[in-house]
Design a protein that fits this description.
There is one protein chain. The chain is 41% helix and 18% strand. It has 251 residues and is α/β, with parallel strands linked by helices. The protein has a single domain, classed as 3-Layer(aba) Sandwich (Rossmann fold). The protein has a 7-stranded parallel beta sheet, with helices on both faces. A two-stranded parallel sheet has the order 1-4. The protein has a two-stranded parallel ribbon with strand order 9-10. Helix 5 links the parallel strand 7 and strand 8. Helix 2 packs across helix 7, helix 4 (113-134) runs parallel beside helix 5 and helix 7 packs across helix 8. The chain is globular and about 45 Å long.
């Protein structure tokens, strides 16, 4: 498997979203965004959307793989190799950011129960605590639909646990996005996902905003939320799949 991730052409953004990005850049000309998990399916879309918007003067990605990008605002991209097992060695990585987009995650089936918890809980929470101490104002998390700390399903339970623990931290604004099935061209299509990919088109006829959402739409929703004026950002906001679709359409 290649150690380099190549980002595709940045997405086209609406006139309204460009105006929103321009207003944000004018109000915060030195704003910095940090992306955790930038090489995953949602993470890479977040990076592409951030760079396409030009809203942030610096887009820092904490990555294990090098990202290849030659699109607009490429000079804003800063890549830093990170070892999540030794975050104390990377404390400076978490300093000086206005917003953090957390797209860390794996699956229990792929990683096993222990490593899944380490990535989806420990890596997320350890990073969030460092960001809180460093004064980051906005934390945006890509979680999952049906997350619930009391769920009988381990995946949903851990996702819900993380959401609850994040709410105890003192960010100015915490935005939690709970997408359902993620639609994208996956590098690794697991058996269950392949099966679902055949069902999704039919199910979307019955439930167009409930059953699935594209990774690009999730990214646009996350970036849009980060660009709202501070006065318009709730202390805690949780976006369902249908709300992600509506919010993403604004970008």
């Amino acid at each position: 498997m290649s150690s380099t991730i190549k980002l595709l052409t940045p997405p086209a953004l609406s006139k309204a979203s460009k105006e929103l990005a321009d207003r944000y850049r004018a109000a915060k000309p030195n704003a910095s965004a940090l992306v955790l998990g930038p090489t995953g399916e949602v993470g890479r879309e977040v990076v592409r959307t951030l760079l396409a918007s030009g809203a942030y003067s610096k887009v820092v990605v904490a990555t294990r793989k090098e990202i290849e990008y030659t699109g607009p605002n490429s000079s804003s991209l800063e890549q830093i190799k990170v070892d999540y097992e030794n975050l104390d060695e990377h404390k400076t990585l978490f300093e000086g950011h206005d917003s953090c987009f957390c797209c860390l995650g794996t699956t229990r089936g792929k990683a096993g129960k222990e490593f899944f918890y380490k990535v989806d809980h420990d890596y997320v929470m350890n990073s969030a605590k460092l960001l809180e101490r460093a004064g980051t104002k906005n934390f945006l998390l890509c979680s999952a639909a049906n997350s619930n700390s009391k769920s009988i399903f381990y995946y949903s339970k851990v996702k819900g646990q993380v959401e609850n623990e994040l709410k105890d931290l003192k960010f100015n604004s915490l935005s939690i996005f709970q997408p359902a099935f993620l639609e994208c061209d996956r590098e690794e299509l697991r058996l269950g996902e392949k099966f679902m990919s055949y069902l999704i088109p039919a199910l979307k006829v019955l439930m167009p905003k409930t059953i699935a959402v594209s990774t690009s739409t999730v990214a646009k929703a996350m970036v849009h939320a980060s660009l709202l004026p501070e006065a318009d950002k709730p202390a805690t906001a949780v976006y369902s799949n249908s709300e992600i679709i509506d919010f993403g359409a604004k970008m």
